[in-house]
Amino acid sequence: MSRSGPAGAPDARRTRLTVLAGPTAVGKGSVSADIRLHHPEIWISVSATTRAPRPGEVNGVHYWFVSEEEFDAMIQRDELLEWAVVHGAARYGTPRAPVEENLAAGRPALLEIDLQGARQVRAAMPEALMVFLAPPSWKELVRRLVGRGTEGEPERERRLVTARLELAAEAEFDVTVVNTEIHEAAEELVALMVGAQSVD
Fold first, then answer.
1. Which tops the pLDDT comparison, 7 or 105?
2. For 4, which DSSP code?
3. Under DSSP, is residue 18 helix (H, G, I), strand (E, B) or coil?
4. Domain limits at 184?
5. Which DSSP helix (H) or strand (E) runs through 140?
6. Closest CA relative to residue 141, chosen from 31, 24, 34
7. What three-state secondary structure class fits 91?
8. Crossing angle for the helix pair 182-197 and 28-38, to the nearest 10 degrees
9. Total H helices, total E strands in the chain
10. CB-based contact 58:40 (threshold 8 Å)
11. Is 69 helix (H, G, I), strand (E, B) or coil?
12. Sign of the alpha-carbon dihedral angle for 140, 57, 183, 175
């Protein structure tokens, strides 16, 4: 289900960028993967990150895995639309050129990023549709984080502290999608993106 936020829908005369953000372990990657599988017409940005790949992650598909030096060079060349240090550890960023190319081509474009990055994109592209992905409950968010088993206890605790802060930012977004079931949330997001393109 979705909840409308306080921000109004801006005027859009070309393809409008959609930004998906939300707390850690809420399922942003799973929702994006479902859209990638069922909606090839939607372009989904691949972020660059300095963190190591998790099991099963593929370079260029899930993320662009780069060194700290490579990331520094991307910043210096102004190649990132946004970037941030996430969970006090790795850096993540959105390569600028592919975003601009797909918007210019009239293709629906989606960024799946963290809260800090979403704020940077809103400042740079205020016409973007900002979508907050929320868990059904705090208890369910904790269950998902523990259940995926990709972080040790110290990292989980750090992410849960961050998640509480991220949940408090929901009001900054245009609309909230509650991720009760992945495919349902993905389809709701696609419907929002299609609706956003039709705004005159």
1. 105
2. E
3. strand
4. 2-197
5. helix 138-148
6. 24
7. strand
8. 70
9. 7, 10
10. no
11. helix
12. positive
Convert the pLDDT of each residue in 35-89 to its tens digit: 999 999 999 999 999 999 989 999 998 899 999 999 999 999 999 999 988 767 8
Residue with tokens 């990132």: 80
Q: Quote the tokens at residue 84.
A: 């941030």
Query: What is the three-state SS of 143-191?
Result: HHHHHHCCCCHHHHHHHHHHHHHHHCCHHHCCEEEECCCHHHHHHHHHH
In total, how many domains does the chain have? 1
CA–CA dist 141, 116 (Å, integer): 20
Q: How many other β-carbons are positioned within 10 Å of the β-carbon of residue 63?
A: 20
CA 47/CA 92 separation, integer angstroms:
7
Specify the length of the chain in residues: 200
CATH code, domain carrying 179: 3.40.50.300
Cα–Cα distance, 105 to 42 (Å, whole number)? 12
Write down the H helix ranges in the chain.
28-38, 68-76, 96-104, 115-124, 138-148, 153-167, 182-197
